[in-house]
Design goal:
Layout lengths: L1 H92 L1
């Protein structure tokens, strides 16, 4: 009788352990999938943000170049006008 009970208990413990291991494995796999999904989402968001920043940087760079060229043109015009003014003053003073 004791041997019979012992065998039943061992079988029961074996089934409980197997069920627990299956349950744990299932939960573990679900957690891994969840965190992989979240990690992928974060990576996608980071990539989008980086792309957006690069686009903005390029736009600012283009704008800066445009403004720099405009500034250079205005400086050239101003220098020309100063030169003309000086020439006019010298002509008038004679």
């Amino acid at each position: 009788m004791r041997q019979f009970v012992r065998t039943d208990i061992d079988q029961l413990l074996h089934r409980i352990r197997r069920d627990f291991e299956n349950f744990y494995s299932n939960i573990s796999q679900q957690m891994i999938e969840y965190y992989q999904t979240k990690t992928n989402e974060l990576q996608t968001n980071i990539n989008q943000i980086l792309q957006h920043q690069q686009n903005e940087f390029q736009q600012y760079k283009l704008m800066q170049n445009k403004l720099q060229r405009e500034n250079e043109r205005l400086e050239t015009d101003l220098n020309y006008e100063k030169e003309m003014f000086i020439n006019l003053q010298s002509t008038l003073c004679k």
